[in-house]
């Protein structure tokens, strides 16, 4: 029987690439999607093993239903869980509403833990493995994407704690830290951020308008890696004899890790200098 793995947020981008890559490696992939149409699109170029699974990581009933289905279909054993579902909330922190901040954490942090908790009995049997898709933004916080960075910092901490707690059962917990990846998450974020800025008081435009516009321009023009580059690393995290605790993906991500180790004031100066260049 093929080993089973669940991937959350598999509709597009990194999640979809992971689903296809793991399917190609012979896994029985349960692809967590929020719409049935997205699941059907995934199945068009996959083997019969790939199974779409309706899953909203912020909905307890949805998680419980998905866990129940996995218990009944996998023989009470799950080889891997890839926590990929995520959103990006951006904007100047002075004007990010508490509701938007809560939404950021509900998806990127609370949802990860809720799904993990529901599936740990299946992972413990194997034992299986856990792979959390983080970001270099979980190491290096950038201006005007504070909510997203904060959620990834939290995910890194959660993963570190979980890795030690699950050590007695030999359940590896790996974190994948990509840099810029060509996925829809940033297009969605740009659209949402533009809407947020439109709804903010005129004062916000006067205070931060130029900087936010510069960051938006950078995000639109950035050329990142394709999602398949991350998918290949996820395959390694699930198949390496001794999986790493962290996998950094991309030259820009490796540079970000180096920057994160600099003294705070020097790092701040470099980020401010970069922001000034973008404003020109």
Keywords:
single chain; alpha/beta; Rossmann fold; 12% strand; globular
| Helical run tally | 10
Q: How big a fraction of the residues is strand? A: 5-15%
- CATH architecture, by name, is 3-Layer(aba) Sandwich
Order of helices and strands: EHEHEHEHEHEHHHEHH
Radius of gyration equals 19 Å
Question: Order of strands side by side in the largest beta sheet?
Answer: 3-2-1-4-5-6-7
Tell me the domain tally: 1
Distance between the termini: 58 Å
Helix content: 55-70%
Tell me the structural class.
Answer: alpha/beta
The pLDDT mean sits at 91
Summarize the structure.
The protein has 280 residues and is of the alpha/beta class. The protein has ten helices and seven strands.
Characterization of this structure:
With 280 residues, this protein is an alpha/beta fold. Helices cover 56% and strands 12% of the residues. It has 10 helices and 7 strands. Helix 2 links the parallel strand 2 and strand 3. It is globular. The termini are far apart. The mean pLDDT is 91.
């Amino acid at each position: 029987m093929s080993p089973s793995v669940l991937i959350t947020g598999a509709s597009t981008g990194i999640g979809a690439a992971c689903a296809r890559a793991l399917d190609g490696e012979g896994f029985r992939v349960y692809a967590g999607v929020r719409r049935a149409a997205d699941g059907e699109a995934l199945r068009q170029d996959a083997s019969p093993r790939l199974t779409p699974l309706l899953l909203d990581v912020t909905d307890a009933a949805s998680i419980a239903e998905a866990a129940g289905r996995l218990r009944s279909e996998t023989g009470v054993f799950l080889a891997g869980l890839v926590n990929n579902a995520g959103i990006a909330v951006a904007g100047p922190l002075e004007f990010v509403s508490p509701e938007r901040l809560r939404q950021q954490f509900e998806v990127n942090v609370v949802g990860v833990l809720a799904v993990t908790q529901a599936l740990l009995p299946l992972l413990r049997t194997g034992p299986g493995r856990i792979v959390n898709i983080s970001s270099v933004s979980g190491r290096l916080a950038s201006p005007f994407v504070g909510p997203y960075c904060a959620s990834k910092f939290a995910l890194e901490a959660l993963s570190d704690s979980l890795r030690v707690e699950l050590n007695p059962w030999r359940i590896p917990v790996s974190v994948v830290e990509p840099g810029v990846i060509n996925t829809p998450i940033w297009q969605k974020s740009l659209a949402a951020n533009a809407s947020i800025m439109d709804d903010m008081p005129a004062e916000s435009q006067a205070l931060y308008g130029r900087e936010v516009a510069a960051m938006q321009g950078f995000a639109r023009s950035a050329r990142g890696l394709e999602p398949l580059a991350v998918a290949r690393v996820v395959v390694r995290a699930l198949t390496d004899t001794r999986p790493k605790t962290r996998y950094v993906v991309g030259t820009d991500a490796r540079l970000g890790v180096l920057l994160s180790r600099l003294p705070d004031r020097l790092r701040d100066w470099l980020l401010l200098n970069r922001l000034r260049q973008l404003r020109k």
